[in-house]
Write a structure and sequence with these properties.
Blueprint (H helix, E strand, L loop, with lengths): L1 E5 L3 H12 L3 E5 L3 H8 L10 H11 L2 E4 L2 H7 L2 E4 L15 H10 L7 E5 L7 H12 L6 E5 L9 H6 L4 E4 L3 H10 L1 H4 L5 E4 L1 H32 L3 H9 L20 H14 L8 H23 L8 E5 L14 H11 L3 E5 L4 H7 L4 E2 L3 H5 L4 E4 L4 H4 L3 H5 L6 E4 L6 H6 L3 E3 L8 H7 L1
Parallel strand pairs: 1-2, 1-4, 2-3, 4-5, 5-6, 7-8, 9-10, 9-12, 10-11, 12-13, 13-14
Helix pairs in contact: 1-3, 10-11, 10-12, 10-13, 13-14
The chain binds uridine-5'-diphosphate-xylopyranose.
Length: 448
């Protein structure tokens, strides 16, 4: 089967590479010549564990090629996947559909024979039906050019695994022919027993935003509990662990701390709330605004905690910021809570020295006012306070005594609940984390 993948960003590049490795003939398409040149020469333009090796394998097999020509894509493909971005609009909470519309508008005139166009991008519900009309109108093949929706659930850092072995496949279709084409395209995935849900276009679109909203809700729920813990002296870490033993609740996405960022969860919940309002059912997901609010407050509270541990003022203080990426195993700094906190501390007068294992370059370009170091210990040299903002494993492995030897003051704020408080306190550190008491509960007990 011959597939094209339109859009070679995070989602598209991963999808194109994995589909070629699974045995399909694949043509990756993008309007960005530099991205296409990079990929064609074997370079993945972003950080994703395991993907560079697979790109080499796919290129060597001769089954993966790249182009900037939509005419070539139209001639080549039986199934065309649309994998372009849907960022938040600059002046509104709505999703910006410019790229999705442009992809269909450029591809459709090149579809001269029966073909299936499959949207994978995250879109407001109702977009697929609109695009289906546009496709029929613009394609020389007319009604023979059909639209389907197949939302993508991959996580950065686990993109290869999530594509090769997803939790489920969702196929939004309007004909048995479209379903059959998609089942053929995903045959290697389905052969592993991956569950498949076949449904209509609008349900398929909704599954994605409903899933991301649920995940964001889980994170904000535990962070809301952290606020209660802060007011009562309770420990949100213990609370989350105790909740997780209930299988109905589960422990995943229940990690308290600085909250969610990245290119998906924050903009997806806002676009969903906005779309629901347009549909006249805004009240149904009004809670998503609360979820967003709780999440934003975590960043402000983390700054407050750093100010507090510094004695009420960070002006003139040296802060070591460990982490810049929105999460570990990624170089993505879109809506990164870490850099938001770092910038707020700088605005309050601190000198902030950032270290991140993968996102240093992009952070340096986007935040030139911050200072940068090439190791955690280097960043911590002479620091008045260390703030852990992204939970990379290498930060978990830092010996408290080694860091104690280079800092000015042994004060640490663990924004991600990644460190063992007992170990750091035993090495003489003042350890603080949002939603955790200043001393461990048992120590408190003994003191009474
Ligand atoms: C998310 C969805 O998980 C994925 O299914 C979808 O396709 C795209 O959006 P991603 O943005 O890659 O994926 O990151 P994810 O692993 O979901 O983490 C999002 C944010 O939540 C990160 O900033 C992370 O640090 C934070 N997070 C996650 C928490 O604060 N607590 C948790 O318990 C889990």
């Amino acid at each position: 089967m011959r597939l094209t993948v339109i859009g070679t960003g995070y989602l598209g590049a991963t999808h194109a590479i994995c589909m070629a490795v699974m045995g399909h003939e694949v043509l990756g398409v993008d309007v960005d010549t530099s991205k296409i040149e990079k990929l064609a020469s074997g370079q993945v333009p972003f950080f994703e564990p395991g993907l560079p090796e697979l790109l080499t394998k796919a290129l060597d097999s001769g089954r993966l090629r790249f182009t900037t020509s939509f005419a070539e894509a139209g001639d080549f493909g039986d199934v065309h996947f649309i994998c372009v971005g849907t960022p938040q609009q600059a002046d509104s909470e709505a999703a910006d559909l410019t790229y999705v519309d442009a992809a269909v508008t450029m591809l459709a005139p090149c579809l001269r024979r029966r073909a299936l166009v499959v949207g994978k991008s995250t879109v407001p519900v109702g977009t697929a039906a609109r695009l289906a009309g546009l496709l029929r109108e613009l394609a020389p093949a007319g009604n023979e050019a059909e639209l389907a929706w197949n939302p993508e659930f991959l996580r950065e850092g686990f993109a290869v695994d999530d594509t090769m072995r997803p939790d489920r496949l969702v196929l939004g279709v309007t004909s048995a022919w479209a379903e059959e084409r998609l089942r053929d395209a995903f045959e290697p995935v389905l052969a592993q027993g991956v569950p498949v849900k076949v449904t209509d276009l609008q349900t398929a679109e909704l599954v994605k935003v409903a899933a991301n909203s649920f995940l964001a809700t889980k994170i904000s729920y535990i962070n809301a509990m952290a606020e209660i813990c802060e007011a009562t002296g309770a420990d949100v870490h213990d609370l989350a662990e105790a909740l997780a033993y209930d299988d109905r609740i589960g422990g995943r996405f229940l990690r308290p701390g600085l909250g969610f960022g990245g290119g998906c969860l924050p903009k997806d919940i806002r676009a969903f709330a906005h779309r629901a309002e347009e549909l006249g059912v805004g009240q149904a997901v009004g809670f998503l605004r609360e979820i967003d609010g709780i999440n934003r407050r975590r960043r402000a509270r983390t700054v407050d905690l750093v100010v507090e541990i510094c004695g009420g003022d960070v002006a003139g203080k040296r802060v070591a910021a460990l982490g810049a990426a929105f999460k570990p195993n990624s170089d993505d700094i879109r809506d990164a809570p870490a850099l938001d906190v770092a910038e707020r501390l700088r605005a309050a007068g601190a000198t902030v020295v950032v270290y991140d294992p993968a996102a240093l370059e992009s952070a340096r370009r986007a935040h030139p006012g911050l200072e940068y170091s090439t190791s955690a210990l280097d960043a911590a040299r002479g620091a008045d306070v260390v703030v852990l903002l992204t939970e990379w494993n290498e930060f978990r492995e830092i010996a408290p005594s080694a860091m104690a030897a280079v800092v000015r003051h042994r004060k640490i704020v663990d924004g991600r609940h990644a460190l063992d408080p007992a170990g750091w306190r035993a090495a003489g550190w003042e350890y603080r984390a949002l939603g955790r008491p200043t001393v461990a509960p048992l120590e408190k007990e003994h003191r009474r």
